[in-house]
Design brief:
The chain is an alpha/beta fold. It is built from twelve helices and 18 strands. It has helices at 16-31, 46-57, 63-70, 72-87, 119-126, 154-164, 198-206, 214-223, 279-289, 318-331, 361-371, 395-405, and strands at 3-8, 35-40, 92-95, 103-104, 113-115, 131-135, 138-140, 146-148, 169-174, 195-197, 227-231, 242-245, 258-274, 297-299, 306-314, 338-351, 378-382, 385-391. The strands form four sheets. It has an eight-stranded mixed β-sheet with strand order 3-6-2-1-9-11-12-10, sandwiched between helices. The longest helix is centred in the N-terminal third of the chain and has 16 residues, at 16-31. Bound molecules: adenosine-5'-diphosphate, aspartic acid (ASP) and magnesium ion. Aspartic acid is lined by residues 9-10, 41-42, 47, 73, 136-137, 151-155. One of its GO terms (cellular component) is cytosol. Belongs to the aspartokinase family. Substrate binds at residues 47, 74. Keywords: Amino-acid biosynthesis, ATP-binding, Kinase, Lysine biosynthesis, Nucleotide-binding, Transferase.
């Protein structure tokens, strides 16, 4: 029998009633003759609550216990979904990550899936089980401990199962009816895309569009998984939602496909460090060893052998970065006058594979921002994206202005 993977996010399983609605969708696919693997998230808000409890109990927590607590939300929804399906006379069974097993690295709280042996679930399908309900977001480390895959990780669970079982498709059911030109919560002019290229989706996800976890898009691209994003609240046809696919499968597209943003950024500047070979290596090794995810980097022009070094990182890692720099200064490996942290910045990015062949996108982006009186603090570019760091209070305005200026509400 062909296998279909269906993933339901937090809002889609937020209550027993919503679980019943989702189970009905599963029933429709079962009746078409699929063996279905359902991946569930925790109920909406549950994971945040669990993270809050861990922080309250132990701010400098042991990541293994964080995972033990935070993975539990998915166990509840997996069991409830299996019960609901059974009550509809659909043979279903729930599976926690370790039972499958979903084998991951031991990088607790951000583990990567290494292998999903399909034998156990396949054997159950052969015995008549029609739906395997798998708790998303979780796996098991080589040491036999529960791991989690990072926030939004159920998307990655879903794509990894689709790859492991050579599924016909991986459907991601969520609270929006597809991937939009930007988060529809920021502007009502956001337009749903029928298709989006893997490369563009990868950039949008990594630049903040949380509709798919970045790693899930990477996996789908690598294993050629047919990935679709659609709403769990609407009646569905086979062409509903957004298909994430190879760029060759897209006929027409705008130069800019979408605008992404990341709200909780910080900009840090080391003032007056020695301008000598190895200084960047020393600074960024210390930051990386402290677990700081550095994003943008700018080194200023040197004067009299001294320079400033600026980087951006998630705002909740500022303290860690400060500690790392102070420790390096105390050890005498880095000498600087001051460390300035600006915690009120956000990153806004425009993304599109059309930028490979079109010039002037950056100039236009900067003109639009300046027209709104928004000052740009840091800029980075790649072949298919341009990102700027700006004051957080202008983030929505910037997204809306860019969406208008690049006419994203209109299809190509
Ligand atoms: P789930 O709980 O189903 O995994 P998420 O909250 O993780 O859902 O992701 C869906 C949300 O992603 C939407 O409600 C929307 O606000 C947000 N989002 C951000 N960028 C986009 C985009 N470009 N297209 C669609 N949704 C987006
Ligand atoms: N429940 C987890 C989270 O909120 C995983 C997921 O929903 O994808 O991050
Ligand atoms: Mg999500």
């Amino acid at each position: 029998m062909p296998v279909l993977v269906m993933k339901f996010g937090g809002t889609s399983v937020a209550t027993p009633d919503r679980i019943r609605r989702a189970a009905k969708r599963v029933g429709v696919e079962v009746s078409k003759g699929y063996d279905v693997i359902v991946i569930v998230s925790a109920m909406a808000g549950k994971t945040n609550e669990l993270v809050g409890w861990v922080d309250e109990t132990s701010p400098m927590y042991d990541a293994r216990e964080y995972d033990a607590v935070v993975s539990s939300g998915e166990n509840v929804t997996a069991g409830l979904m299996a019960l609901t399906l059974q009550s509809m006379d659909i043979p279903a069974r729930s599976w926690q990550g370790w039972q499958v097993p979903v084998k991951t690295t031991s990088a607790h709280s951000s583990a990567r899936i290494e292998d999903i042996p399909p034998e156990n679930i396949r054997a159950k399908f052969a015995q008549g089980m029609q739906v395997a309900v798998v708790a998303g977001f979780q796996g098991v480390s080589p040491e036999g401990r529960i791991t989690t895959l990072g926030r939004g990780g159920s998307d990655t669970t879903a794509v990894a199962f689709a790859a492991a079982f050579e599924a016909e498709r991986c459907d991601i059911y969520t609270d929006v009816d597809g991937v939009y030109t930007t988060d529809p919560r920021i502007t009502s002019k956001a337009r749903k895309l029928d298709r989006i290229a893997f490369e563009e989706m990868l950039e949008l996800a990594s630049l903040g569009a949380k509709v798919l976890q970045t790693r899930s898009v990477e996996l789908a691209m690598r294993y050629k998984v047919k990935l679709r994003v659609l709403s769990s609240f609407e009646e569905q046809s086979d062409t509903a939602g957004t298909l994430v696919c190879d760029e060759e499968e897209i006929m027409e597209s705008n130069v800019v496909a979408g605008v992404a943003f990341s709200r909780d950024e910080a900009k840090m500047t080391l003032v007056s460090v020695a301008d000598r070979p190895g200084i960047a290596a020393t600074i960024f090794t210390a930051l990386s060893e402290a677990g700081v995810n550095v994003d943008m980097i700018v080194q200023n022009i040197a004067e009299e052998g001294r320079t400033d070094m600026t980087w951006s990182c998630p705002v909740d890692q500022v303290l860690r970065a400060q500690k790392a720099m102070e420790a390096s200064k105390a050890e005498g490996v880095i000498n600087y006058h001051d460390l300035i942290a600006d915690k009120d910045v956000a990153k806004v990015s425009v993304v599109g594979i059309g930028m490979r062949s079109h010039t002037g996108v950056a100039a236009k982006m900067f003109r639009v921002l300046s027209g709104e009186g928004i000052n740009i603090k840091v800029i980075t570019t790649s072949e298919i994206k341009i990102s700027v760091l700006i004051d957080r209070k202008y983030m929505e305005l910037a997204v809306q202005a860019l969406h208008d200026a690049f006419e994203l509400e209109k299809a190509a």
